[in-house]
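Look over this one:
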Amino acid sequence: MSDKFTPTDRNRVMRMRDQAHYDRKTIYEILDSAFLCHIAFVHKEQPLVIPTCYGRDGETLYVHGAAASRMINNLAQGIPISLAVTLLDGIVLARSSFNHSINYRSVMVFGQAIPVVEKAEKLHALKVISDQIMQQRFEDTRKPTGGELAATSVLAIKIDEASAKIRKGPPDDDEGDLTLPYWAGVVPLTMVAHPVVNDPRLEANQQPPDYINQYIDNFETHVTPTAKNRKKK
């Protein structure tokens, strides 16, 4: 397997090509630092974009939803789809309004979805999605019943084509603007996890397990550009 995705008419970055990345390492690091994606598809000639959680297992992304979901039923037909993941890293404030920007890391994935119907693979896929959000949680919950599995559809999306685009660093002001009396720089942004809020129906003195506290303590390291991302095969 090549360590890079081949640029094609679908995944080639057209604007700011110096910010483009096609290597699997960069693409997978971004995918592994998030758990929310937006999936775009066309339903009855109407373009739709729907947010959903996902999980990555090697060359496959798993998504799930209600069996009656419009998105799931459309994607299960094998129609072409695109999937986007974006991590917001900062607001770039330039000396001119024109040169303001955003620091971000994004990935676009192109492929087709395949329904997951075999029970063992379905449970595996649901665990992958759960682990993408919080590792160890799936093992520390009641497993889905037969009825819950029947009401849940799971799709596997093979990562056929993908590209990443990353913008980082200070403003790119015009040379002639550098002496203007306006402040310029970056406001860094991070997503953080706050202390837990207990369900009021918990048993008295029931505390969150250690892995949840560790997740909160380490959360920012999963989503910042300097993070040592979670290891995936």
